[in-house]
Design a protein that fits this description.
8-stranded mixed beta sheet; 25% helix; disordered C terminus; 6 helices; alpha/beta
Length: 231
């Protein structure tokens, strides 16, 4: 299994990671829209300190200004038993969400989860929380902070969910995609999967799904989570 150990030493951090704050936001149009009761977006902003903080102003020139956004986590809540086709709701948003929905839902997209998924999780009824994106500014990367922040966001938002799912894929691509070989893409996905495994996700793959998903395993369940990853 690919190691998920931090690539950089703590001494390379320009600022104290204990000052990172998570701010939770759920936005939606003021007018009715498709699948409004089925797919719910969450944007978790990561800031260095809080705007107006004064007690750490003497940290030095390398520290960001208090309240500066240094990253974010994006999650989606796919609600159960709304009457909508949940696969269509996921597909209308993005291909990655559709991949996860295809792996965990029953064939109709309406009548609950697939038998394989229900067998893999502890609780068979409830919403599905999807971990979509985790981003940190370059100065904060390589220290293992991304999975820690994702785990905290999951802990806060997963109440009432039967599982948490993620699809380990690249969030961005080089401008010249010809430079990205299939081998490089597989290696990148393997590293991302290892990061999710470090916070308790385990691989879930079912017949008919070309791509595995990831769900949190024993370590996550011990803290009240039941999460899985689709790969």
């Amino acid at each position: 299994m690919t190691s998920a150990r931090p690539k950089r030493l703590v001494g390379e951090l320009s600022s104290d990671p204990a000052r990172l704050h998570l701010h939770y936001g759920h936005g939606h149009p003021a007018v009715p829209y498709d699948f409004e009761g089925t797919l719910e977006s969450w944007y978790v902003k990561v800031t260095y300190g809080m705007a107006g903080d004064e007690e750490w102003e003497d940290e030095g020139s390398r520290a960001p200004a208090a309240g500066t956004e240094v990253g974010h986590v994006i999650l989606w809540r796919l609600r159960d038993y709304t009457g909508d086709n949940r696969w269509e709701a996921a597909d209308a948003e993005s291909g990655d969400l559709a991949v996860i929905a295809s792996a965990v839902l029953g064939r109709s997209g309406r009548a609950g989860y697939s038998a394989a998924f229900e067998k893999a999780v502890t609780h068979r009824v409830g919403d599905l929380l999807i971990l979509d994106r985790v981003h940190l500014d370059r100065a904060w990367r390589g220290f293992g902070l991304g999975p820690i922040l994702a785990a905290e966001a999951i802990r806060r938002l997963s109440g009432g969910c039967c599982a948490v799912a993620a699809y380990p894929d690249m969030a961005g691509y080089p401008e010249d995609r010809e430079q990205l070989t299939e081998a490089c893409r597989r290696q990148a996905k393997k590293k991302i999967a290892a990061l999710w495994e470090s916070i308790g996700f385990q691989r879930f793959c079912c017949t008919g799904s070309p791509t595995p998903t990831w769900l949190p395993g024993e370590r996550a369940e011990a803290s009240g989570q039941a999460a899985q990853t689709v790969t």
